[in-house]
Every structure is written in structure tokens, then in C-alpha cells.
Design a protein that fits this description.
The protein is an alpha/beta fold. The chain has three domains: 99 residues, 3-Layer(aba) Sandwich (Rossmann fold), CATH 3.40.50; 67 residues, ATP-grasp fold, A domain (Dna Ligase, domain 1); 161 residues, D-amino Acid Aminotransferase, Chain A, domain 1. It is built from 15 helices and 16 strands. The strands form three sheets. A seven-stranded mixed beta sheet has the order 14-13-10-11-12-15-16, with helices on both faces. α3 packs antiparallel against α5 and α5 packs across α6. It is globular.
């Protein structure tokens, strides 16, 4: 069994004898920060397990205890979680994953972990339909939901037989491994020669049957939409729709930088069909891209954990974390409506993207400044919890310098 690293106690409010059911957050990045603040502001104890250089959630005033564990994976990670639960009497606390690795760990070891915790993701037989894009596309076909044209290539010869229209993207069917392709999410390729070269490269660390070649749907972040919901047995208890107006990179982003809530039923119906088909329970973000050639919303992803722009939801009137906590306490979940036109921004990444778009002539200075005017939710900074916001830029500089020194580049 993995030994528990020394805990760093940040506040004493997280008493091991507390009868309040709290939450254990498996990650200390800005996604974990949103979970910590949501419950901490209501007096619900929240403990954070940070990894690597993830520190934002750990330095929040609402993090009642901070632990460290290097990397999720296998039985050792499960043993660690169970030992933490016993040591600190976290009986039936909610367990929140914040990364693809922690989602998979929780789903595949559901039976063991549920003896100690209340799990906020479904077991693997349900979750696989969301995290394995091969199964996700199969589910989309069965439920009548459109998705980008996709090819599966077991070898190079098969690729040459495909009727491809370039550019295309090469992407993994699941992001359950840490490598160059999963970190970058997808590679855009503009010719058959480039595709074959990158395919060979990808096959050096991913099995060929786990690779996908997909059409590029035109448009940038302004064409990407998300349906976010809290579900129980496939039925939505609360939901909202948002547009990922700016993201990094703009064409197929790894992370959102500017998001706003909108009202678009064209996204709601297909998303709800998908989630109901697998009787999904928990938080989910279903991502679509609207094809300007047809007007159709094409399914890109189903995200079964907290997403980057998650704080926007509470600002818009739907605090998903607290509603989920109520649901797991068998308390009634109030009926709430999301406000449209509410905006979220992460300035540290949005500003560089905006400058690049302005130089390319795809965004005017006036339009950019207009998007930042008025009330909006910050990704990191909060007046009642200022330290994460104040420390974000120094931490980014530190990570930037660390990557340069290690030779990994930017």
C-alpha cells in the first residue's frame, strides 16, 4: 500500500471528527479551485490533493486541508485514497476528479472506492461511452446526433485508401495516457505526406487502433458550444448553454479563454439525448461545433468532470457543485434557471490569444475591449479569496521558466 505523504494543514476547520459530509478534490489546479470555493463558501469542508505544481486550489482560504500525491494511476492511487479516507475520517465524503487520469481511476475502481466515498462519476461501464471517442461516436450514431466524419486507421495502407479532404486532424480516441498527442489534444495536418509522418510518430506511443482521423469543421471558438448539466439517471436537473468565444489555440482549443452563456435549444436536444441514452448521473459538459456549411451542431466531446470555465456556471445562477452535493445528501435540488449573457475570462491566456487574433485581422481592438466591458467572472481571482489570483502570474512564470530549463519548450 502506498504510504501517505506528509499532509500540509492549511486550516483547522477540517476536523476529522466533523459530522458534515465534505469533499475530497483530486487536483489543485484552477478547476479544483472552483470546487473548493463553491463548497467552502457554504461552510462545507473541502480537502485538496494537489499534484506536481498545481497550487491554486491548495492556497485557497477555503481549502481546509492540503495533501500531495504525485500522479494518479493503478491500485496504488486507490490504496492512497482509501488510506486518506480512513486516516482523516472522510466517511462518505464526495470524491471529485479534476483530470482525465483521476476520472478513469475512479470509474475503473468504482466498487472499492465507494466503500469509503460518494463517487461523483459513474462506473466504467457507463463512463466509457463518454471518454472513449470511438464509443461516443457509436452512441451518437445510435441516438441521431451528428459528429465530424471520422476514420480509424489500423495501418498506413488503410490511410491511403481513405477519401480524405484536407486539412484533417489526428487525435487519440481517449486521453488516458500522458504523451505529446494527448497533451496537445489533436494535430492538424494539411497533406497526405504530413498525415503519414505524424501517424508514424503517434504510433510510437499510442496503439494504432486508438487513433482517429477526423475532418476539420470550419470555424474557431465562436463556433464551439457547450451544454453543461447535472444529471440523475440521464435526466437533467439543472443545465445551461455556453459559447466558447475564444480559446487556445483558436481553431481547436485545449483550453477556453473567454466564454459566455447563451440560449440555444439546438445544442440542448442532442446533448440530452446522449446523456439519457447512457442514463448518466453526475456533472457533464457536452461539446459541439456548429458547421457553417450546414448549420448542424457536431459532437466533439463529452467531459465527465469539472471543466475550465466552470466558475461561470455559478455566476450565471447554477452552482453545479453545491447542487450535486445536495443531490448526494438526498436533499431536494432547487429548480434554477441560468442567466444568458454572463461572461467568464482567464486574462492570462485570453490576452495573448486576442493579440494574435487582432494581428491576423480576425478580431478588432474595439470588439475585444467590448467583450471585456461590464461584469464578468474571473477564472482565478475572487475578492473573498484573493491569494490564488495574486499568485497565478508568478506561478505561470515559474512553470514557463521550468519548462525552458528542462528543454520542453513553451
Amino acid at each position: 500500500m502506498a504510504a501517505i505523504p506528509n499532509a500540509v494543514l492549511t486550516k483547522t476547520a477540517c476536523s476529522t471528527k466533523s459530522r458534515t459530509v465534505g469533499a475530497l478534490v483530486m487536483g489543485g489546479d484552477y478547476r479544483g479551485l472552483a470546487l473548493v470555493r463553491s463548497l467552502g463558501r457554504r461552510g462545507i469542508p473541502v480537502c485538496v490533493i494537489r499534484q506536481g505544481d498545481q497550487r491554486l486550489a491548495a492556497i485557497s482560504r477555503y481549502a481546509t486541508r492540503t495533501l500531495f500525491y504525485p500522479r494518479w494511476g493503478g491500485n496504488e492511487g486507490v490504496d492512497y485514497l482509501l488510506e486518506v479516507g480512513r486516516k482523516y475520517a472522510l466517511d462518505q465524503w464526495l470524491l471529485f476528479p479534476t483530470s482525465d487520469e483521476s476520472v478513469r481511476l475512479m470509474a475503473t475502481h468504482h466498487e472499492r472506492l465507494k466503500e469509503q466515498y460518494q463517487l461523483t462519476v459513474p462506473p466504467w461501464d457507463t463512463l466509457q461511452w463518454a471518454v472513449d471517442k470511438r464509443l461516443m461516436n457509436e452512441l451518437a450514431d445510435e441516438t441521431g446526433v451528428d459528429h465530424p466524419r471520422t476514420y480509424y486507421a489500423p495501418n498506413r495502407d488503410a490511410i491511403r485508401s481513405f477519401d480524405l479532404q484536407f486539412p484533417v486532424i489526428l487525435k487519440p480516441a481517449a486521453r488516458d495516457q500522458f504523451n505529446r498527442l494527448t497533451v496537445q489534444k489533436a494535430w492538424r495536418l494539411d497533406s497526405m505526406e504530413e498525415l503519414l509522418t505524424r501517424y508514424d510518430e503517434a504510433c510510437s506511443f499510442i496503439a494504432p487502433e486508438r487513433l482517429m482521423i477526423q475532418e476539420v469543421v470550419p470555424g474557431g471558438g465562436e463556433s464551439q458550444f457547450s451544454y453543461a448539466a447535472l444529471c440523475k439517471d440521464g435526466r437533467s436537473l439543472a443545465s445551461l448553454v455556453a459559447r466558447r468565444t475564444r480559446q487556445f489555440p483558436m481553431d481547436f482549443g485545449r483550453a477556453s479563454t473567454f466564454v459566455e452563456t447563451i440560449d440555444d435549444p439546438g445544442v440542448v436536444c442532442p446533448a440530452e439525448r446522449l446523456l439519457y441514452a447512457i442514463r448518466y448521473t453526475g456533472l457533464a459538459e457536452v461539446e459541439f461545433k456548429q458547421d457553417p456549411r450546414t448549420g448542424q451542431f457536431k459532437l466533439l466531446d463529452i467531459n465527465p468532470r469539472v471543466w475550465g470555465w466552470y466558475p461561470l456556471c455559478a455566476r450565471a445562477g447554477i452552482d453545479f457543485t453545491y447542487l450535486l452535493w445536495l443531490m448526494y445528501q438526498d436533499e431536494s435540488v432547487p429548480h434554477v434557471h441560468a442567466c444568458t449573457g454572463v461572461r467568464w475570462v482567464r486574462l492570462s491566456t485570453d490576452f495573448p490569444i486576442a493579440i494574435r487574433e487582432i494581428l491576423r485581422g480576425r478580431l478588432s481592438i474595439r470588439a475585444y475591449l467590448g467583450s471585456l466591458a461590464g461584469a464578468k467572472e474571473s477564472a482565478i481571482y475572487a475578492s473573498d479569496d484573493p491569494w490564488p489570483g495574486l499568485m497565478e502570474f508568478p506561478l505561470l512564470l515559474y512553470l514557463f521558466a521550468k519548462r525552458l530549463c528542462s528543454g520542453d519548450g513553451i
